[in-house]
Protein: Glutamate racemase
Organism: Candidatus Levilactobacillus faecigallinarum
Amino acid sequence: MRNDPIGLMDSGVGGLTVLKEIQRLLPTEKTVYLGDQGRLPYGPRSAAEVTAFTRQIAAYLRQKHHIKLLVIACNTATAAALPTMQAELPIPVVGVISPGARAGVQATRNHQIGVIATAGTVKSDQYRQQILAKDARNTVVSVATPELVTLAEQNDLVSAHAQEVVTQAVAPLKNQGIDTLVLGCTHFPLLRQAIQGAVGSAVHLVNPGTATAAAVTTLLDYWNLANDQSNDQPTAVYYTTGDADRFDRLANQWLNRTPVQAIPVTIQTLERAMQTTEGE
Ligand code: DGL
């Protein structure tokens, strides 16, 4: 159990921003990552549909890799499915919203916090609720910026076009007095430079992936699940339901690891994994 991998899932390459933090903090842990690019974007989909996809992916990662802990490295899926997955799975399940909200609360000085996320995450109101639950003095301004997911998936991160799209998308946050901006979609840290350029250097950007990785280390210790074979070669396995070459290009650029070679997996395989679980 302790030497089994940590599983991570996202609709695409966004969750790699969480994986990178986990690999940095926990270099001896094995990881297995699934990007559901064949069904991206999750943002506009209903919570019920996103929950169904999350369930399938969890079933697949458990059957195929016997994961010891699942990180829902997607804010939209966390908003839709975290309590359900925590209730259904016999392993610890970690989402990104609670760690992200806490990091935002810790960072702000003037209690004016901005959140950019997908339509699904904004609609769920989870960030606002969790930020206020941690400190009711805060005011939260949330803006849906789905166009940033498209940029990140196209690996268009630092071009003049990317800067223009990002500047337009975050324009509603101008003159709101925010001193902290939570990047409430795991794709957005890929666009950190353009986002910082658009909101100005005085605004502190929060990547929930950093706090999520810290939460994972605590949970592994608490459940006595940390890998105890320090000489074990850490391995990372990647799957995508989309184009593996496109996935590899971005992942190789983003992660400082040995070459990434994603394994293609079909949506039917994920659906079948879920059906097998139901039949148990
Ligand atoms: N990366 C995902 C998130 O954190 C969502 C992107 C999408 O599929 O819309 O919400």
Summary: Residues 10-12, 14, 40-43, 74-76, 118, 121, 149, 185-187 surround D-glutamic acid (CB under 6 Å). The two ends are 21 Å apart (CA to CA). Residues 21 and 64 are 24 Å apart (CA to CA). The chain is about 45% helix and 15% strand.
